[in-house]
Amino acid sequence: MEEKTHAEPGAVICSTCFHHCRLGAEQTGQCRARYNHGGKIVPLNYGQLTVLALDPIEKKPLKMFYPGSLILSAGSYGCNLHCPFCQNAEISQTGAEIRTEYMPPGELAERAQSLVSRGNIGVAYTYNEPLVCWEYVRDTAKIVREYGMKNVVVTNGSVSIPVLEEVLPYTDAMNIDLKGFTEEWYRYLGGDLETVKDAVKICANRCHVELTTLIVPGWNDSGDEMRLLAQWVASVDGNIPLHITRFFPMYHMSDLQPTPVDAVYGLVDIARRYLANVFPGNC
Known about the structure:
Elements: E1 4-5, E2 12-13, E3 22-23, E4 34-37, E5 40-43, E6 48-49, E7 51-56, E8 70-75, H1 89-92, E9 101-102, H2 105-114, E10 120-125, H3 134-146, E11 150-155, H4 161-167, E12 173-177, H5 183-188, H6 193-204, E13 208-215, H7 223-237, E14 242-246, H8 261-271, E15 278-281
Helix pairs in contact: 2-3, 3-4, 7-8
C-alpha cells in the first residue's frame, strides 16, 4: 500500500486512516506511531510490544468465537483516536518514549504456538489500536496462520479500506468499537463515524465480527441513539453480536459517575428488538 506524496518538498500524506496526516521529514502523525522517514511513511512501533498476556477470548470481547478458549494478546503503543475514557491510555496515548520489548513476527507466532497446550488458539492484536501498525499485524498473522492458529484484531475500525484489505485475508475474527451513532460524538473522540461504518460492512463479509459500544452517561446513552445504531447494524447483519458495556471513570473522564446498570440493561432491551445477539458488559 503506497503513501501519497504532497507537493511540499519532503512532505508525505499518510493513507492509513481518515486523518490523512501530512508529515514533513521525520514528523510523526496523530497516532504517534507512523512517521515520515526519508519520504516514506513507516511505523515506529513495528514489533515494539508493551503488553503480552494470555487472555480469555471473552476479554476481547468475543462472545461467539471459540468461547472458553484463551488467546495470546499483544499490544504496542499509539492510537488514531483520543477517547477521554480510554482504559489503556498509558499505551494508546503515548509514543516511542514508552518502554517496549521488540518481538519480530516469527517470534510472536512461535510464542503463541508454544501455548497451544494451555488452550491458546492464536494471537489477538489489541490493547492499543493495532492497525496503526497494520504491517506488523499482517506479517505476524501470516505466520500464525501457517501454524494453524487464529488471528483476532481488536480495533476502533477507523482505518482506510486498503489497510483492511492488507489484514483481512489473515484475520479470523474482529471486535470493532462502534463508539456511538452520532457524528458529533465521533468528532469529539477525534474520529469519523462513516469510516467505522464502512469498516463494519466490509469486515462483516470477510470474517467473524462482534461490535462493542461503551455507554458513557450524558454522551451516547439515549434510547433513540441505540435504536438507530441497532437498526443500522441489523441492516448489515442482524446476527452480528453487539456488546453494550458499562462505563467506569478513568483517564480524562475520571469525574463522571459509572453508567447505571439499569441504563445498560435498558439499552440492551432496545437493541434486542433488532439484533439476535446483544450482551451487557461490565455489569
